[in-house]
Amino acid sequence: MKTKWWPTSGMAVTMVLAVVIFLLGMLTGRLQGVALAVVLLLGCGWIQLRHPHASGTVRLTTRSGTTSESRVGATVSWQPAAGVDALRLRTTAPGHRSVDTVVAAPRPSTSSGPSTSSGSEERRIPISIRTARTGRRPIFTVDHQERYGAGLYTSAGDTAGPMSITVLPKATPLREVPLPYRLSGLTGPHDSRRAGDGNDLRDINLFTPGDRLRRIDWRVTARRNGPGPGTSGPAITDLYVRRTHATADAAVMLVLDSRDEVGPDLTTWNDSSSIPEDVPTSLDNARAAALTMARRYLQAGDRVGLEDLGRMHRPVPPSGGQRQLQRLSMRIALAEPEGEPRARNRPPRMPSGALIVVFSTFLDNETWHLAQLWHGAGHRVLAVDVLPEPDLRNAPRRLVTAYRIIAMERHDRLTALARSGVEVIDWTATGDRPVQVTLAALTRKRVRR
Amino acid sequence: MSFGGIGDRLSTGVGRRVGRWQDSARQARAGINAPKPPVRVETGQAAPGWAYRIGCLVLGVLAIIAFAPGVVLIVILSALLALVLLRPAAGTAGLFCGVLGLFWMIEPSPPNSLAQIAVLALAPALWVLAGVIADLPLRARIEIAVLRAPAIRYLVVQVVAQVALIGAQLLHSHQQGIGAGFAGLLVLVIAVIMAVAAWLLFPRLRGDQQ
């Protein structure tokens, strides 16, 4: 790409002073001054005559995988033009301090690496940030300018980015998770009470049309059939089969409330773009919780679907397998607030008998109302509270007062949910009752409806 | 409008302004207590910009010491050196070299002495280094390898200039007693070096012309 290189004012100042000193030195016979002027003039002349006539290219690309936990990376690829000395970069990322860097141009080589016609190789500069945030966001912006001639020549800079990167949430392992009131299907990882082709013995009964021959229990058949006439052995008149309980799977619907995204700092509640990178927001907690539950249920062989309350899109229907986990991972990572939340005329339809897990901050009545409706329709509903613990240290007094009012209303909603039979889980809880303990307790709880 | 109403509005306005100042102070304190982490950029061996400025300071001080001027010139050159450190650029360093060269003509160093070699080497070195770090903030990370190309140019020009100056001064002193053959050889060497310098300066025509 052709671009203009031009001499700086430093070149002009240096040349003028050098010429003046040269002439004065020649007139007065002062060789030392002349020598100094010659050095400056030779330097300026070399720079002027060998300056680049084109500029290189700078590309910003994502890096697959991360260098370590919670680190998001990209690569700046620079293909320098011939004769360029260095590249100046200013790398910016949200929640991080900008960094100015100057990197040297790679040496021209005859190796088999990527190179231009002048023989210079491509220089790759990895950049990364540490973040606790997830989702698809513009992260890296790189302002770049090639440098030549020790400040005597300059060129126009350019900007690469902002580059959007999708950061997938991390799923933590869970041991026990609750199941819906009613399992469905005739195959799956769980035992059910229906007769079917499972593992647990249900009873031993007479052979009826439709029973499998390999289910015949010959020992019981021989014991229950009496000796035949004129023979010493039993006469087989009735066959007995072992009947087992069927297995079933659970249908789980994850309901992600992506209508709002708030952090611990109350002053950022009206502007999610000012939330720092090292603290997860409510939506990050919701994404991590949803992916954790999805992975746990799918690994057990159940079917999981997803409904995003922040978008008026078709939900992901319940399904199983690794592909469903990948599908859910991307949909969960891409869930984000989309403008002003629109009111729904009717609640989203849920598969019959499904376990519904609602991930929300419960800062308004929408999800509270939906949870109660679903519970009233016969579903087992888990309400997962994903609001992070607020940091009130730097909040103004009026905000603290407003937050206390909101917190009291939220507490009333959660209490009303718990009283109505919806099971409430605090995902950010630590200490005596972390999430794993709460879920294990819910698993063992005998729920009667 | 009653005076009581005006008083209420004044107190409310003052209260709001004080509240805004308190909010700003609170946010500033939060920023100081929890500074933003930097973006990680993986480079080769690098040094911060302030280290290069210290290098400029060292070069400038050594050049002034080698020049050994009077008190007034020390003050003037120190002020120019401070300007270079505050705003490193080829222009400010060129100004320092220009003023130094001017004073050098007024108070020259002994011919072919270490001081002469030092001043001729250090002043342009400061000019090159200041140009390399031009417009860069103190916290900028600059790879050491960035100095390679300017250093090569500097060394080539230094070799030419130092040899040419020594040769010219010997030639000048030949007029006061050195043998003619020796002087002629010197001039020949100077001419060859100048030719090499000219070859380096003008763009070479190659198959893949730059």
From TrEMBL, chain A:
Q: Where is this region: Disordered?
A: 104-130, 182-203
Superkingdom is: Bacteria
Matching entries from InterPro entries are given as: DUF58
| Listed Pfam families | DUF58 (PF01882)
Does the record carry Transmembrane helix as a key word? yes
DUF58 domain residues: 207-389
Report the transmembrane regions from the record: 6-24
- UniProt keyword annotations, A-Z: Membrane, Transmembrane, Transmembrane helix
Give the compositionally biased regions (Low complexity): 108-119
Record bears the keyword Membrane: yes
- Composition-biased stretches (Basic and acidic residues): 190-203
Sorted alphabetically, which PANTHER family does this protein's record hold?
BLL2464 PROTEIN (PTHR33608), POSSIBLE CONSERVED SECRETED PROTEIN (PTHR33608:SF14)
Protein name, per record: DUF58 domain-containing protein
* Taxonomic source organism: Microlunatus endophyticus
TrEMBL record, chain B:
Name of the protein described by the UniProt record: Uncharacterized protein
Superkingdom of the source species: Bacteria
Q: Does the keyword Membrane apply?
A: yes
Which of UniProt's keywords are assigned here? Membrane, Transmembrane, Transmembrane helix
Looking at the UniProt entry, the stretches that span the membrane are 50-77, 84-105, 117-138, 150-171, 177-202
